[in-house]
Specification:
mainly alpha; disordered N terminus; two-stranded antiparallel sheet; 177 residues
Length: 177
């Protein structure tokens, strides 16, 4: 990944879209279902939905290229922080207690910041105008992007989780920035 300035004064439209979508009913559970059940990188899934809402339809090759670019960061940083945070939920004695809980909260904050950095890098590295093809039907673009990601992962997605994400994404207006 090329070095990018991800510490900008204001968040990218993609990060704003993600926060808005993640705040919708059912979305956190749908993302967790796809992450844990199908190995989904939620940031890539959200990026596909964001691009769909800006009128961009991606191919499996597009998503493969995006995934290859972000994989070192996701695997080395985001997943590692997630594993540490999850392990700290129930640390073994004598490490349980308020100090471990405080550490878990700091790791959770770092995990969220790592995800934001990944999203900001995606936004800068793959501008909407440079990837995919135009698709005026935003719902169709979103569905296509989710399906292209499923094909890239060569797996099946929980249909109810996908339906929740697509339905909730339709309620958000995305800007290209």
């Amino acid at each position: 990944m090329t070095q990018t300035d991800t510490k900008s004064a204001s968040p990218s439209p993609f990060w704003t879209f993600s926060l808005s979508l993640y705040g919708k009913p059912g979305v956190p559970d749908a993302c967790l279902t796809l992450q844990d059940g199908a190995g989904v990188d939620v940031n890539l899934l959200l990026f596909g939905l964001y691009l769909g809402r800006t009128g961009r339809k991606l191919s499996s090759d597009d998503l493969r290229k995006i995934a290859q670019t972000t994989e070192p960061w996701r695997a080395g940083i985001v997943v590692s922080l997630r594993a540490a945070r999850r392990a700290l939920k129930e640390p073994p004695a004598p490490f349980n207690g308020p100090l471990a809980e405080d550490l878990r909260k700091r790791v959770k904050s770092s995990e969220l910041e790592a995800e934001r950095i990944q999203q900001e890098a995606l936004f800068v590295t793959f501008p909407a105008s440079s990837i995919g093809v135009a698709e005026p039907d935003l719902a169709k673009a979103c569905a296509q992007n989710v399906d292209a990601y499923r094909i890239t992962l060569d797996t099946s997605f929980n249909e109810a989780a996908v339906a929740t994400l697509l339905t909730q994404a339709e309620t958000i207006v995305a800007t290209k920035g």
